[in-house]
Write a structure and sequence with these properties.
The complex is a heterodimer of chains A (313) and B (184). Chain A is of the alpha/beta class. Chain A has nine helices and nine strands. Chain B is 34% helix and 15% strand. With 184 residues, chain B is of the alpha+beta class. Classes of the chains: A alpha/beta (313), B alpha+beta (184). The interface between A and B is large, with 51 and 47 residues. Chain B: Pfam families: UQ_con (PF00179).
Chain lengths: 313, 184
């Protein structure tokens, strides 16, 4: 047990999933926890991100989550107090030396690009240290009533990139001919504006999701186009339009709790040597859409994987 | 973490015995770039297609030249631009035709209606699938789900007239009051 007091874990994301993961790890007594998140707290987060209160709105998620847990004065493994350190920043800017100091990394992100980035960093750390260093990466994901947990041992078991082909298409899209000529739904109108008309009117730049003017352009054009095709404009509220362009799937507290629990169980199994690398099921999928269903299986490493394949030097 | 540390030791021991050490197979570029390079390395290009890598402004833009050797568009030179964002291959590249064409599935601005570039895209598809998809558009233009309605109506009503209209447009002529780019 001696080395358990030296365990340090980096948590990626302090959103719905991240809050649950942080709470679980703290209650498990992990003494040194770091969390990185560049988002600030919004009113709509409060129904499921239980470490935040109304008075925290506008503040950094990472900082508030860390403060909340630190104020509880939890005693951790080896008699060390649980301390959470916050990093209010973009995780793709974390430097390699910083990442290397952790025992494990647990992610509760919603961005595939950020996961691909971290996966690649960790695989390279294993290879470049000639297997001296190996930092397991436990990746949780939740979308509506569905979720997954992947346990990646870089250099030993399937990496995130190995399973990329199994990801569902990220955005629901409609045939171009339908959205151009026969739009029937408000979604068709928005998709036409975003994938055709924007580029025609603004060939020099991409749509800026944070720009008030760009969103106003979208709202105005959407109403005009909907009227042109006799589509009901009452659905075209700013919330609806944002939901369509950002592909917002409702985040469900129970899914987050289930996936976070699975991630933290994987942490325990690794720390307490109850995990047979290469033999234990490394991927779990959960589906609460229709009843409640979870399935775990071994995802084999892909020998041609662009990130973790080996060349012999 | 004892079990993992033991495995790491084993791996290092093996390496010492064999005198070899596994290393990553690739230079540190983004995963999207790696995938794109792999796509390009494994291309099996039909004779009527060429890819301009020399004209690449950045690593994530490709120019695809197609000169169909049969069908309505035989001998026309068509240049497409494919832009790959760092979300590739989770999201498809954006593909546009750079010249004005009279075609039921490509509009006058060069937007292409091809299912695998939108609703039927999947990360298992690659640059090769896109080449084949674009080629099929020239061999079998499809009038049932049109992007250019005028062209689709002509094709559906009178294929002979469509053939004449396409020939006119390829030479840079005018069809239904619209001038086209000369591509022959
Ligand atoms: Zn891999």
């Amino acid at each position: 047990m001696a080395d358990l007091a030296d365990v340090s874990i980096l948590v990626l994301g302090a959103g719905g999933l991240g809050c649950e993961i942080l709470k679980n790890l703290a209650m498990q007594g992990i003494p040194d926890i770091h969390v990185v998140d560049m988002d600030t707290i919004e009113l709509t987060n409060l129904n499921r991100q239980f470490l935040f209160r109304e008075s925290d709105i506008g503040q950094s998620k990472a900082l508030v989550a860390a403060r909340f847990i630190n104020e509880k004065n939890i005693m951790g493994l080896g008699g060390r107090p649980v301390v959470v350190t916050a990093h209010f920043q973009d995780l793709t800017l974390l430097d390699r030396k910083f990442i290397e100091r952790f025992t494990l990394i647990v992610s509760g992100l919603d961005s595939i690009e950020a996961r691909r980035f971290m996966n690649m960093q960790l695989v390279r750390i294993t290879f470049e240290s000639r297997f001296e260093k190996c930092i397991p990466f436990i990746d949780g994901g939740s979308e509506g009533l569905k979720g997954h947990c992947k346990t990646i041992i870089p250099g030993f078991s399937a990496c995130y990139e190995c399973s990329l082909d199994t990801l569902p298409a990220k955005i629901e899209s409609y045939p171009l001919c339908t959205v151009s000529n026969n739009p029937r739904l408000p979604e068709h109108v928005i998709e036409f504006l975003m994938s055709v008309q924007w580029a025609q009117q603004h060939p020099d730049r991409d749509f800026d999701f944070d720009s008030k003017e760009d969103l106003q352009w979208l709202m105005d054009e959407a109403h005009a186009r909907a009227r042109q095709f006799n589509i009901d404009t009452s659905k075209l509220t700013p919330q609806f339009v944002l939901g369509v362009i950002k592909n917002i799937v409702p985040s469900v507290a129970s899914t987050n709790a289930i996936i976070a629990a699975q991630c933290c169980t994987e942490v325990s199994k690794l720390l307490y040597n109850e995990y047979d690398i290469g033999e234990a099921p490394n991927f779990l999928v959960y589906n609460g859409d229709d009843g409640c269903f979870a399935y775990s299986f071994v995802h084999e490493r892909v020998s041609t994987c662009l990130v973790c394949r080996e060349s012999i030097q | 973490m004892l079990k993992l540390r033991q495995l790491q030791k084993q791996k290092q021991e093996q390496a010492r015995q064999n005198g070899t050490i596994p290393a990553p197979g690739n230079a540190p570029v983004s995963a999207c770039q790696l995938r794109l390079r792999k796509d390009l390395a494994s291309l099996d290009i039909p004779p009527c297609v060429s890819i301009d890598v020399s004209e690449c402004e950045s690593n994530s833009r490709l120019y695809i030249n197609i000169t169909p050797d049969e069908g309505y568009y035989k001998c026309g030179h068509f240049k497409f631009c494919a832009t790959f964002k760092d979300t590739y291959p989770i999201e498809p590249p954006k593909v546009t035709l750079l010249s004005k064409i009279f075609h039921p599935n490509i509009d006058l601005q060069g937007n292409v209606c091809l299912n695998i570039l939108r609703e039927d895209w999947s990360p298992v598809l690659d640059v090769q699938s896109i080449l084949i998809g674009l080629l099929m558009l020239f061999l079998e233009p499809n009038a049932t789900d049109p992007l250019n309605k005028v062209a689709a109506d002509v094709l559906a009503a009178n294929p002979h007239q469509f053939r004449r209209d396409v020939a006119t447009s390829l030479r840079g002529g005018q069809v239904n009051g619209q001038w086209y780019d000369r591509v022959i």
